[in-house]
Amino acid sequence: MNVLESIRCQRAFAFTSLFVLAVFSLPPVAGAQQNWNATVSGQSHDMAKQAVAFLPNEFWIHAGDSITWTFASGDVHTVSFLTTGQVYPFDFTQGCPPVSASGSPFDGSTCVSSAPSVLGQNFQVIFPTPGNYEIVCLVHPDMFGVIHVLNSSAALPYDQDDYDDQAEDQRQALLEDLGPHRGHQHSQHSMPAMLSAKVISHTKAVTAGFGDIVATAGGQQALSVVRFFDGSIQIHAGDTVEWTNHDPALGHTITFGTVPADLFDPSCSPSCTVSTDADGALHATITSTSQNVHSGAIVALLEDEPGAPQGPVFPPTRFRVTFPTAGTYPYVCAFHDNLGMDGTVTVLP
Q: HSE-up of 149 (CA within 13 Å, CB side)?
């Protein structure tokens, strides 16, 4: 190798070394786009307990980042972001509306919502613009949280491992019924006696679901137990059974026979009707095991909202059925029969 070639090699090596050093000495690019992972809901092994929650329900991310939510329950939920001032949609099956494609961006100007989804499905949202955005479930108004989208130069308080730990802690706290300020567990055997009242004679009381709502700084979460407590009972011909819902987050139905297409309104066929008692409870009479009787949505009494007009007492919180004929009458909650919410009324002569 001559002197000229040696000099050229030395210069090339020096330039390459300086370039590599410069590249590796650069600070990391702030706000590089990242996908974060979160969970929607959770459930116990027997599906009786449902965590009605975004897990975790508070996130800090950079503008340009995305979050992918994985649905982890057999109960239906949505991942939805509404615009400021938008009326909360009544029909959750239509999205916000409409249903958005996974991977849609949300910057506060146009609503974004998944379709109603269950165990194993995913939905991703991209957040291009800094801001604080509320995440809601259109099926469960008491289930919400917040996403803090920061400028790319801002430091983030948590990484993905931290969020995974928070999600698991919140899930366990809900499913074990050991949320903040609740150092106790409810006995399923004592709940009906504790919560239900016999308001008419010859009436058997059944509790249709039970729940608790808890709050974090980022929003609300709930535990829902989707079971009929003392749901399989024996009565005598002429007696009445009364179902009451004690879950502040979930609605339930009491459905005998064929599940109707309209799950929200009461119905009865053939040759029967659902009437309203003086105290507002819905009431039907079943004279045959071949009849189809449906309570419609039975929901715990809704809370009042400051600034909203006061309305009549709504919705119905009780459903009564009188059984004049002996027989065996199986029933389900049409919303949650896939989770094992069913019972039987055995009518003795």
A: 23
Per-residue confidence (pLDDT) for residue 300, from 0 to 100: 82
* CATH for the stretch 199-208+228-301+314-348: 2.60.40.420
**Other beta carbons within 10 Å of 174:** 24
- 26 vs 311: which has the higher pLDDT: 311
Nearest to 243 by CA among 140, 175, 139, 341: 341
Q: Do domains 35-175 and 199-208+228-301+314-348 have the same CATH topology?
A: yes
Q: Residue 1 and residue 7: Cα distance in Å, rounded?
A: 10
8 A C-beta contact, residue 99 and residue 114: yes
DSSP string over 182-203: ------TTTHHHHH----STTE
Domain boundaries, the chain: 35-175, 199-208+228-301+314-348
Which pLDDT value is given to residue 177?
62
Whether 134 shows a pLDDT value over 90: the answer reads yes
Greatest alpha-carbon pair distance for the chain in Å reads 115
Whole-angstrom distance, CA of residue 59 vs CA of residue 69: 12
Prior bond of 116 cis (ω within 30°): no
Which of 2.60.40.10, 2.60.40.420, 3.90.78.10, 3.30.70.920 is the CATH number of 35-175? 2.60.40.420
* pLDDT attached to residue 7: 35
230 token code pair:
């003392």
Structure-block tokens of residue 78: 């949505």
Nearest to 109 by CA among 88, 92, 128, 90: 128
Q: Which of 268, 56, 64, 246 is nearest to 158 (CA)?
A: 56
Q: How far is residue 325 from each of residues 161, 170, 275, measured CA to CA in Å?
A: 59, 48, 19
